[in-house]
User: What shape does this take?
Amino acid sequence: MTERSGILTMAAQGEKTSPLARRAQLRPAARRLAAMALGFAGGWAVLYGRLMPLGLGLTLGLGEDCFAPCAAGAALGTLLHGGGAFSLRSVCLLCAVGAAVAVRWVLAGRFLPAAAAGCGTLLGMALCFVFGGAGRELLLYSGADALLAAAMGLCLRRYPPEVPGMGMLLTAAAGAAAMGGVRLWGFCPGVMVCAGAGLLLCCRGKPFAALAASAVTGAALCAGDPALAPAAVGLSCGCCAAAVLAPGAHIPTAAAYAGGCVGGMLWVQPPGNGFLTLFSAGAGVLTVLALPRRWRTPDRGEGASPPPGRPPFSAAATRLEAAAQSLASLAQTVNDVYEALPHRCQSYRWVVDNIYDTLCCNCGRRESCWKQEYAATMAGMEALRPLLEQNSGLDPGQLPAQLCRCIHPAALCAAASKSFALYRSRKEAQVHAEAMRTALTEQYSAVAEALGVLGEQLGRPGEPEPYRSGRVADLFTSLGAPPLECGVTVDDLGRTHAAVTLPRTRFSSRELAALAQEVGRICRRALETPQVLSCRGMTTLLFCERPALRAVFGMAGVPAQGEVSGDAVQQFCSPAAAQMILCDGMGTGRPAAVDGSLAAELTARLLKAGFPAELAARLVNVALALKSSEESGATLDLISVDLYTGTARLFKAGAAPGFIVHGGQARTVGEASLPVGILGAVNGQSRVVHLAAGDYAVLVSDGLLVDGTGWVTKQLELSAAAGDAPEKLAQTLVETARVRAGPTGHPDDITAAVLRLEKWG
Assistant: This one.
């Protein structure tokens, strides 16, 4: 293989910039442009000739990065719809949009204040104009606009338009309402676009989405122009025909859609009046047929039928799903059986009964003590309880006054001590069994969820690329290593992956780098060095597209005493994400180091295997709880950064607050919670933030924050402005914290782990 690597190195070409990097740079600008266009449509649209709520509703409902461009587009659409002239309605709407934007800038993420400001300003301005002599209709229409805008904003907040559902339907309705009132020499662009969208969804095998979109956009067309009611009926009939007769087939679907449109439109109006709308709908149908075939290919969405000859899930995914269901069912069965079984209530009364059964039942004074003087005997037994709890043994001289009449005092003391010891051991065994049952079912449930996640990932392998798969297979065959399996796929985000399975083979790092360059040249993507998996005489090479970002790690730490620290750090990169873990064992020294290292090592292994952070925390919690009879616990602090998009997911369980430096500004993340290994369940917190090139993520132990977080944020901002390396920044934080912790007299382990994102190249 060494000779082959030289050939590959000579034939390899220069690295190409990944298109994902350019896509990540253009995505924010594209989102803002789309928000501005959507806002323009909302400001332009007039419902039923009077109402104009869409511009304000979109401004209230869109995300934090899109509401300002949307407001600008809404203001522009409102002005242009009136021909540039200021009417009383336009003045009220512009002031309302401006108030909503101002409040959203000041109170980010708060819907009620923004809605109150926008809708209140709209009603207040209308009321002022009414008192100034304007008609009362202005106040009525402004009130209706305010109610509809608030309802639309609330729906968009709860159902974001980026996710298929109600939010996306509302934005589609805004666009349809804006285009419904537009006419170009009798041609209606709104009908054309709505017809094309409905047909495209039917061609892609999504009948339910097509029916929902057709109903909503048809209603929006009627709201924009009531004269388009026949067109809306025709589009709905066409969509129903295509969705029922031939969803997923191109030409039959288009024919059914066209037939349904013609029948529906001509059924509700005379033929002479429907030609222009039929012409608009036909233009939409022809536009869809002119699109590339791969754009019209059915996908695995709702109602889509899988391609012939290709099962929807692989065999491995199906088996993983079955194993997950079995484990989940086993955990549920154990819990159900435990709840159904009768539970003996072992109280102190059991000790009294056992004393009677072992001693008093054969005594001659039984009738006198337990019948005639029952109250006094029970009072004596209750007075005996604190003595048994305090002392392991009992002397006759310690018997309460009510029991001094016993003719066998020594035997009574022995029977009471033995019964209470047996009672205590049974209680401890019951508590231990309950803890074991809880740990067992928690472990089964966590493993079941993890297997379900892995099965879902295997069930969505991506869109296959047969041509590139064949070329990659030919490459390995030409090198004398014909692959057993070879596949190149493109996932939902457009990232290229390649998996090549060979007979057991060893590769050097130089050979893997050369293979990555050659496979990347075939796939026309810059690929990372492949991950190598070896099992049962086979070796699998997993190639993935090089991400737009790369992670640089740094860490520093100092123990509280001696040379052993209870803090443990793991920093590594998986194929798609950068992972950083910090675990702080309870206390200091070697016992804390065992717990911290165990938690960090187990979490790292689970993350590398593809387990989500929450499931990994649950399994680590069980491992620490069952590690020994003594109490074990450790904080769990981890961050996972998607190197393609910059999305960072943080998970904290009992950990100290972390720090994020974004755009040169530092802020803390995380709140107080309990460590893992203390309770039966994990009390953790998850949070998602977005990072970019040049940003830092810092995880620290609680020993570093003995003097608060204020100085840490200032130091992070200074270091970020100077562009310090992560290793230098971590060392600076630890040394400064050690100096600050000196006067307190309470030493603790101090650790800092730093991650910085950089662009590739």
About this structure: Residues 409-459 form the longest helix (51 residues). The chain is about 55% helix and 15% strand. The mean pLDDT is 77. The first strand starts at residue 463 and ends at 464.
